[in-house]
Structure to design on (536 residues):
């Protein structure tokens, strides 16, 4: 019958029945309320005193701990904690003093004696008289026991009083309840049964609806929903079912939209990356072909210039030998010797600059190629260490007496990276060789007091790796710092640099590997190159 009645009708019926029971009970219980309330207030006071006594016991435990700790360690923090515990204990004792002033006074005297003995023990320990300190602490324990016993006695007395008063209140309450229930026992049982039935008919389906709503709120759209009925709860169930169906549909549509969006974004990113790679590859291929063509066209006539210049130097020497046997006046012979000498010097200059031009052409050919070696995972620390060794031994073989301090700070967690090992080695050899050149130049400028040094550092950056090459050489002036990666730009004297080393290094790191290369320098102090490579 209950599911066919509305919740409003059920509640009205229950209210009328309960009002009748309340009217009957009110007459019987009103006489006892005042008396019971006084008893409860008195009992609550006893409970509060017991609570304060237990708190006093705890705070006294804190006090004795911190006093003992202060006596043994002489820490100011322990003394402050002991003072705080003493204040809390005094506050508790003031509350207890209303029911047992004699016991509280006894506890106060014992606590004062305990404080006095703890202070004396602290003085003894501070005077390195440990035996006296321990003896004083032993005396203090007697006072601790006295306080504990006194607090326990207070708790027992107050609890006994509270129990006695409680028992009296219970007896009075039982008499009042028995008197009030004699006439209305049958009505009460009936009302309780009807109340339980009506409440259950409302609460049970509401709980099921609540559980369904909670589950749907958490995202569990498969949670069970109760059956629909013809009351207000049935309407709520219908609305909840519609909400769940709409959320299921929305979730399905969102998944489809998200999948389509992710697919489109992924395709767009792939398309942009492929387009950028194609454009870069086309540019590099065109530039490489153009550079290679120009270099090849220059190389042939340059070889003729270098070869015939070298041959002309030899012919000048042969001409001087032939002219020695010819008959000339001294003035003419001297003039011929000067002319041949000037011709020989000019030809040697032509040879020198021709060789430099040939070196530039070779570097242009090397710069124009897209890369060499195989692209595969390689140990970055091993590449850095090998490059240091190659550059160092090459410098010592090229220049006798070359010396520099090498420092390695290689992060063991750097591990592997997918690179062109030969190309990265070329970059590192370029940077290390430049560092050797800068430190050697500074040593010549400063003198014997300068110690050349070059360091190589690696660092794990998660999906990237970092390589730093630092030297304490001459540094790079600020006005040319932005130009050092330009092709053919060099700060070295004629014949010592082509200006392509750092340009090739930039192309290898940035364009070939998708990384970055930066420089930090201070003229006259140091130069540091930082390379960051993706692990891919």
């Amino acid at each position: 019958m209950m599911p066919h009645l509305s919740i409003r009708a059920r509640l009205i019926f229950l209210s009328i029945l309960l009002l009748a029971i309340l009217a009957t009970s009110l007459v019987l219980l009103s006489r006892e309320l005042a008396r019971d309330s006084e008893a409860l207030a008195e009992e609550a006071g006893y409970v509060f005193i017991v609570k304060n006594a237990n708190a006093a016991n705890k705070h006294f435990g804190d006090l004795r701990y911190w006093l003992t700790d202060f006596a043994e360690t002489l820490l100011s923090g322990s003394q402050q904690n002991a003072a705080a515990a003493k204040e809390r204990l005094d506050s508790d004792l003031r509350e207890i003093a209303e029911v047992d002033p004699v016991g509280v006074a006894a506890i106060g005297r014992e606590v004062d004696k305990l404080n006095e003995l703890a202070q004396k023990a602290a003085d003894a320990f501070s005077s390195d008289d440990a035996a006296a300190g321990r003896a004083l602490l032993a005396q203090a324990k007697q006072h601790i026991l006295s306080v504990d016993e006194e607090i326990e006695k207070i708790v027992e007395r107050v609890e006994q009083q509270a129990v006695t008063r409680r028992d009296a209140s219970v007896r009075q309450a039982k008499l009042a309840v028995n008197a009030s229930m004699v006439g209305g026992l049958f009505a009460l049982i009936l009302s309780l049964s009807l109340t339980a039935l009506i409440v259950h008919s409302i609460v049970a389906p509401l709980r099921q609806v609540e559980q369904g709503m909670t589950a749907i709120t958490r995202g569990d759209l498969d949670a069970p929903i109760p059956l629909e009925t013809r009351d207000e709860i049935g309407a709520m169930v219908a609305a909840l079912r519609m909400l769940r169906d709409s959320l299921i549909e929305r979730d399905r549509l969102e998944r489809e939209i998200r999948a389509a969006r992710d697919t489109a974004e992924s395709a767009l990113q792939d398309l942009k990356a492929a387009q950028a790679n194609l454009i870069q590859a086309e540019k590099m291929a065109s530039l490489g072909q153009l550079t290679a063509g120009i270099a090849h066209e220059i190389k042939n006539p340059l070889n003729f210039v270098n070869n015939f210049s070298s041959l002309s130097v030899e012919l000048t020497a042969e001409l001087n030998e032939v002219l020695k046997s010819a008959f000339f006046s001294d003035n003419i012979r001297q003039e011929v010797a000067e002319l041949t000498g000037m011709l020989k010097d000019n030809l040697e200059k032509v040879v020198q600059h021709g060789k430099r031009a040939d070196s530039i052409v070779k570097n242009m050919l090397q710069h124009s190629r897209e890369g060499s070696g195989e692209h595969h995972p390689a140990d970055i620390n091993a590449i850095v260490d090998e490059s240091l060794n190659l550059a160092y031994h090459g410098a010592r073989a090229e220049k006798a007496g070359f010396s520099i301090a090498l420092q390695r700070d290689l992060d063991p967690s750097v591990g592997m990276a997918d690179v062109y090992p030969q190309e990265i080695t070329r970059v590192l050899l370029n940077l290390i060789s430049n560092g050797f050149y800068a430190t050697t130049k500074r040593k010549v400028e400063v003198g014997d007091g300068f110690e050349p040094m070059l360091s190589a550092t690696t660092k794990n950056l998660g999906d990237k790796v970092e390589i730093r090459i630092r030297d304490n050489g001459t540094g790079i002036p600020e006005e040319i710092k932005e130009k050092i990666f330009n092709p053919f730009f060099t700060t070295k004297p004629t014949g010592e640099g082509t200006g392509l080393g750092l340009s090739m290094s930039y192309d290898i790191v940035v364009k070939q590997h998708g990384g970055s290369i930066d420089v930090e320098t201070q003229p006259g102090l140091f130069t540091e190159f930082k390379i960051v490579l993706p692990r891919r």
About this structure: Strands lie at 376-379, 405-409, 416-419, 453-460, 464-471, 516-522, 526-534. The mean pLDDT is 76.
